[in-house]
């Protein structure tokens, strides 16, 4: 194991294991990074995500952070009992906490009964079709990966067999029908997914970027995430012909919106203007998981695999690699899962071991992504990370999606050459 990587994990894990450091960051509103949120219960921005990261660190470093990981998991559960979830989402709701419990229960069978019970509660609520009162969604999409239907499908597709229940297939089928109906209702994919600016969350990224209505192509809130979830669920559970037809329709639409680079690989804009305009900042994040160009390529890879289209699958692997290299060529040192190098490192695993990308090229790019993360490690920063996106200031974000927990979980999983369950929520790999 690379000593620099080990040292980086120790720095990140030690800070995240210190509940006082997290409490201080969360309570100090002036120190919080712009856009950071802390719910406490969630996978994306709460104790559940920190618990998952510390669990990964224990497996990878040989240093025991297990007690702290369990303390964070218990905190998430206790908070959910005190203030019940108002969302069933993967990253902002009950499904995410269920995912964290399931991940841990695979190696700690004492948690298996609790993980099964909580999973069944989530599945029952999903099957009822009536989310908890006050259920919200991010940036105008009740069907997205962060909060909505697509994330719920990814959760059901990835959940370990030891945890899943007898109702999973039927509930997943119902959710697939919801998305297929949404697509069928529109005369075009553009119409089905056009986001009206007035529905954006006040102060959100999209409110700031857009002067009118547009279609988000990304994974977190956009078309790529919907396509990824449908393809993953169809692979895991099977799907009705109407779902496959709509996946083909989305495939064709995504290919039509692509822009070939000089090598012939495909890249995508952040969004498509419908009315008004959308500003596309030239940063590394335009390649990243959340709203970047890699998302459509990953979704198209999963659709190609579902349809046994080896030629298209190879082309999408090449496009993913091209997007990785485009990210590396930018100066950004964002190391997060959502917008930065950690997310790119997870997606980069999709092009390993095949014949499309030469092994020497893949290894060189992988090393550059890891190096980008290690460059951001600073033992003097509150959570061990500084970011060029913050003008070199310390990162004050402990969370899984946007902060230190996701970075730690990513390098820990890579260090032990593992593909943890949580990777599937980003890559759409089903638990077959």
TrEMBL record:
InterPro entries, alphabetized: LanC, LANC-like
GO MF terms held by the record: metal ion binding
SUPFAM superfamilies registered for this protein in UniProt: LanC-like
Residues given in the record as Zn(2+) binding sites: 290, 338-339
Entry keyword set: Metal-binding, Plasmid, Zinc
GO process annotations (BP): peptide modification
Protein's name in the database: Uncharacterized protein
Lineage, top ranks: Bacteria, Bacillati, Actinomycetota, Actinomycetes, Micrococcales
